[in-house]
Amino acid sequence: MPNKPFFLPTMLLPSSPFVYSFLLLLSLFLIFLFGPQILPAKSQHPGISTADEIEDLALFHRASVTTSNTISHLGITNPRPKIAFLFLTNTDLPFAPLWDRFFNNNQNLYNIYIHTDPLRKLSFPTNSLLKSRFVIPSKPTARASPTLISAARRLLANALIDDPLNLYFALVSQSCIPLHSFHYIYHSLFGNSTLNAFATQHKHKSYIEILANEPTLQDRYDARGHNVMLPEIPFEEFRVGSQFFTLSKRHALMVIKERKLWRKFRLPCINTDSCYPEEHYFPTFLSMKDPRGCTHYTLTRVNWTDSVGGHPHLYGALEVTPRLVYSLRQSNSTYSHFFARKFSQDCLESLLEIADRVIFKD
Questions:
Q1: Are 232 and 221 in contact, with CB atoms under 8 Å apart?
Q2: Domain of 199?
Q3: In this structure, is residue 339 part of a structural domain?
Q4: Rounded CA gap, 147 and 49, in Å?
Q5: Signal sequence span per UniProt (predicted)?
Q6: What is the pTM of this model?
Q7: Once rounded to an integer, what is the mean pLDDT over residues 256-261?
Q8: To the nearest 5 percent, what fractions of the chain are helix, strand and coil?
Q9: Considering the domain boundaries, does residue 92 fall inside one?
Q10: CA–CA separation, 47 vs 265, rounded Å?
Q11: 15 pLDDT above the threshold of 80
């Protein structure tokens, strides 16, 4: 018998409106189900632009190739190490007069670098020591975004390029104050025999908080999406800590040379409530790279007892007393705290009143 022609039912033909409708609904369902794992995360904040990334990479490369661990080529007799103070701010520096007293009479032992809002012109008190310091080429920053990581790395890179005598790098904010004299901090870091600081810099530890058992660790790890940090950063190696640190030169160099982990941390967050990249990147990287070279504690005191919206306690003028300074210095670590935050601008007069007889009297 001759073969009979085979016909599909009209409702199953590809051209059937029913099939198109069914496939459309199926596609929408699959996108809803698997989209978050496939599509890039949407953030409330922009990521790092390609232009900024290229510019930063050029800066970091320049810092890594021009920075030398030796100083013999400088031709300096009996050089003394310096501390680079890195101010990360988007406003004026309200405590500039207090910092001026801190730095006074310690020339050639420190450098100051400032990263600020590029659209803002900083104003300083007349004759302020901070006024003539190095305001580095800056980019806009925003909370819950990787821009704060980039800003800190720019500060490190510029400080490394600017002066090879910088052996420590202290990151502070506009709301930070010193809790000790410059002399106390300088000799706590370098000891009394500063001439040996260059020969022993490979042993210098970094003072950075590194925590592995925080209650919010899982939420922070998943801030960019479930398993997004893999394979470079397993959850077991993810760490958190304070945004503010004091890094040794060798660790500062490691940070600006790093590329692998940055590819993950530069991704935008979808859960901004748990997104604090600047508190995650540095502790995680240094914990993975050189945990024994870090103290795992910070030298900056912060009061989180009544934090609001991710911000720590803000001290007001009426709270500024000698007793407060003494209590903020206390720590459970080798050193007392060097710095403290957050202080409101109206604290300046009260701080200046007790500066010489309390803060800078060690």
A1: no
A2: 50-299
A3: no
A4: 10
A5: none
A6: 0.85
A7: 97
A8: 40, 15, 45
A9: yes
A10: 10
A11: no
Residue type for position 150: S
How many residues can be counted in the chain?
362
Quote the CA–CA distance of 126 and 99 in Å, as a whole number. Answer: 14
CATH code for the domain in which residue 141 is found = 3.90.550
Q: What kind and span of H or E run contains 188?
A: helix 182-190
β-pairing verdict for 177-178 and 339-341? antiparallel
334 to each of 85, 253, 297, 331, how far by Cα in Å?
21, 25, 9, 8
pLDDT digits (tens, 9 = 90+) for 308-343: 777 899 999 999 999 999 999 999 888 999 999 999
Name every residue whose Cβ is closer than 8 Å to that of residue 77 and which is 6 or more positions away in sequence: none
Q: Could you count the other beta carbons within 10 Å of the beta carbon of residue 163?
A: 15
The reply to whether 349 falls in a domain is no
d(CA 165, CA 183): 17
Q: Into how many domains does the chain fold?
A: 1
Give pLDDT, residue 18: 58
Beta carbons within 10 angstroms of residue 349's beta carbon: 10
Amino acid at 286: L
Asked which of 15-29, 49-63, 95-109, 146-160 is least confident by mean pLDDT, the reply is: 15-29
Strand order in the sheet with 300-302: 177-178, 339-341, 300-302
Cβ atoms < 10 Å from Cβ of 183: 13
- At 256, the amino acid letter reads I
Contact (Cβ atoms closer than 8 angstroms) between residue 150 and residue 139 = yes
